[in-house]
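Co-fold these.
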Amino acid sequence: KHAPHPSPLPEQERGTHVRVRIAPSPTGNLHVGTARTAIFNELFARHNNGSFIIRIEDTDSARSKSEYETSILEGLTWLGISWSEGPDIGGQYGPYRQSERTPEYAKALQTLLDTKKAYRCTCPAKEKSTGDIPVHSCACDKANNTTGVIRLKVTPELVVFTDIIRGEIKVHTNSFGGDFVIARDIHDPLFHLAVVCDDDAMAITHVIRGEDHLHNTIKHILIQRALGYSQPIYAHLPLLLDEQRKKLSKRSGETNVLAYRDMGFLPQTMVNYLALLGWNNGDDREYYTHEELAEAFTLERVQKSGAIFSMIKLSAMNKKYLAELSDDELLVWGLHHYDQKNITVSDTTRLLAALKTELGRFASYDVGGTDLCEAMNWHEKSWMPALSAPSLVWKKSTPEATRSILTDLISLLQELPERDFTKATLEEYVMSWIDTNNHGRGDTLWPMRYALTGREHSPGPFEIAAVIGKEDALRRLTLAHGIL
RNA sequence: GGCUCGUUCGUCUAACGGCUAGGACGUAGCCUUCUCAAGGCUAAAAUAGGGGUUCAAUUCCCCUACGAGCUACCA
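Predicted complex below.
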């Protein structure tokens, strides 16, 4: 009989304390699909006062890289997801890298070999077949080989388990190809074996992962039974889909979570959006803080069908969160984009003021505001726009009228003291001047705004003038006047 | 091909077996407006098809169609 696995926790606590994990393999950056799985796991753990654990699945040493592990953890940290055990912080069930747990797997493999539930097989690797299912059958299980891969013996039977999200799942072992490989060698386990050993050793109570693992779960249950382990509760999440309704992958578009950060998306946007993709609370509510999600989240309300990851909706949500940012947060957000482009910002006060004028207009840039820096270059001190004379004249005006208005506007603004260069005062002052002199609004405001920004699309002229101040405003207006 | 899962507006989704199938994003129109946005108002837009069960089906059951996932000595 297989000896019970040593557990750092008293036996009675096992199973009562919720313990969930995500197990990314460090073969790439943090994928949005992995991020969503992480979010669901973390929310489930928090909702149930349980533990959320990160385990690095690096049994494929050829493809695993430590910089990817760093990047994955950075992505999770940026999202604001917290874990109580993991490769970076350790924990009482460690180590949390599969490459450091080989002795555990060797022990389990030896047990399976000793109890004849697995055997070594020297047959060549199964060829990929396009037609019928290739069923592995050979005489290796009788040959007592001392070399070769290790296969688990599979007897024909119907395996049934209950998935919290999709109910009873039944798969007959005949359908997946006979005895399957669980290790290349006693010290070189495959994913299936390692997962089962770790989930047991780490006292994982609920395995919450993508639907693409549904068939693997059958294999895992078979290994658990052979090893005498108890079976965790399973919940298979619907997949994240691309526009073609295929599983979201690198070829679908950007899948790296950190790339979304660099595009201008906020972590609260990502968490909120991803959590609502496949889960809802049964009502119309769409906006939740991380805490509110943890409070409300249950696996029973997770959707069964896959959901398309939409940048459009993500952007709409991001706009809303951007508008809620405090000054400090907005500045940090803005500076990140200048850093991305290696642009040094000389005056952060002016940058913040400029960002505030652009708030609510971010949709007019590429998704997430990638060309925001260029659109806002008007805020820099002493910056001079590249103006074109035709653009300076409003569509219903003439160069002559524009020239005359600019002449008067410049002398008008010269009389206004610097401290009155605020949006409200400027607006009141200039608008009443327009009205009393019967200038057209467009005839005045268009050239004023264009002169200050060099752009046909921008925030309003008074907001702009308030940000750049009297000196810059007059310099740019004079420049504009000169080209007509 | 086999196995498994799935199917409500274009998308994300709501609806103890019971109002006119609701909301959000997107789209279109109008208002506002110096521009692009934002904001306000309005509109178009869905229960895949066919059988059952029931007084009553988006909801329960069956079949079909379609879609997806899996089908490695990757994870």
